[in-house]
Amino acid sequence: MTEIARGLEGVNVTTTKLCRIDGQKGELVYAGYNIYDLAENSTFEEVAFLLWNQRLPNAAELAELTGKLHAERELDDLVDRVLHEIWNDVRPMRTLEVAVELLGAQDRKSSDLSNAQLKQTAARLTAKMATVIAAYHRLRSGHEPVAPRDDLTHAANFLYMLTGEEPTDLAKRVFDVALILHAEHEMNASTFSAMVTASTLSDMYSATASAIGTLKGPLHGGANEAVYKTLEAIKTEDNVKPYVDDLVARGERVMGIGHRIYKTTDPRAVILEQLGHEVAKTSPDRWYFDLSLKLRDYLAEKLEGKPLYPNVDFFSASVYRMLGIPSDLYTPIFALARITGWTAHLLEQYADNRLVRPNAVYEGAENKKYVPVDRR
Ligand SMILES: CC(C)(COP(=O)(O)OP(=O)(O)OC[C@H]1O[C@@H](n2cnc3c(N)ncnc32)[C@H](O)[C@@H]1OP(=O)(O)O)[C@@H](O)C(=O)NCCC(=O)NCCS
């Protein structure tokens, strides 16, 4: 019988210089740098450069990239007009998807697939997606969008554009690290979907829109918002046990737990937990984090023997909540970070393209004879 690789599990579809994951050891490496090292010492801008060039920038290169990102922060007129029109009817991830396609529609060089132009597009998307989400949030909150500030980092500027207030140093750093942690993750579902689109030589904007649509699902990027909803549903520490027992008895999944690759704790969850402890010290919303810890501990007991551990989404929900970010922006924020990884993979794909076109094994009927509709 023909073997079917359901979910393409275990199938190698390409080579990459961007990311290595060891799911047994809980190791995540971006272009040779361990994620713990990057989270401790680097910045999102540096990591973006690293992914697009497979090396860290020198000071001049970092300044050049930062300048490029600043230059691309303003909203395009068309996107601005559409946002004003749709904010009340369209949810954030779909808004992002639409906005990315509109940005493509306005870019006369969108079909230029040279490496230099693609890198320019990658920086454009990275800068503009942050502004789009912040502007969308402002509009639905009854305010006009906040203009970006060039003296703030990408992470700090996003938080600033959401609220109009400069974030604390702790919030700036924590959010910057969160973006670093979400920037890249090898051949995950959204990256693969970007790759499939690019393999037809469609442009980087459409490939990104495909990735956003894929990230939206609760088995992928949508899990962080689902974790938040779980915490809201549990409400109190006493309710952790009955809630989980009931969920497991019904054969349902606990969001933020488990991973196709990691069979131990996801290192990103370890780092987010550490950050959570820091933010919780001064946060009025620390109960979300405390509840997450209780939930994590009880799940470890309940699911003992199964290789199910917290993934990146598990603690990002309570950390974002403690930073004051609305829960339906958690998945868009994942996209704001992952745009760097998506576009880095797209650079690799366009440089060495092969149309992605797998097979399906036919199991349907044969030899049927067409019968006109009035005789069926
Ligand atoms: C991420 C995910 C889709 C990966 O799953 P996968 O590689 O396809 O693993 P499987 O679906 O084959 O699950 C293996 C076993 O673990 C169980 N399992 C997996 N995730 C689980 C979860 N979150 N809660 C409870 N049980 C879970 C499955 O029911 C299955 O049990 P069984 O062997 O007794 O049937 C899955 O872990 C999941 O749905 N997690 C919740 C969503 C989430 O957090 N996604 C974000 C990922 S970063």
The tally of structural domains comes to 2
| Number of strand segments | 3
Distance between the termini: 35 Å
| Major sheet strand order | 1-2-3
- Bound small-molecule species: coenzyme A
Structural features, described:
- This protein is mainly alpha-helical and 376 residues long.
- It folds into two domains: 17-216 and 328-351, Citrate Synthase, domain 1; 223-322, Cytochrome p450-Terp, domain 2.
- The chain is 57% helix and 3% strand.
- The chain contains 16 helices and three strands.
- The chain has helices at residues 35-41, 44-53, 59-71, 77-86, 92-106, 115-140, 154-163, 169-182, 189-198, 204-215, 223-234, 240-249, 267-280, 286-302, 312-322, 330-351; strands spanning 19-22, 27-30, 33-34.
- The chain has a three-stranded antiparallel β-sheet with strand order 1-2-3.
- A hairpin with a 2-residue loop joins β2 and β3 (33-34).
- α4 (77-86) runs antiparallel to α5 (92-106) and α11 packs across α15 (312-322).
- The longest helix has 26 residues, at 115-140.
- The two termini are 35 Å apart.
- 45% of the residues are buried.
- Coenzyme A binds next to α15.
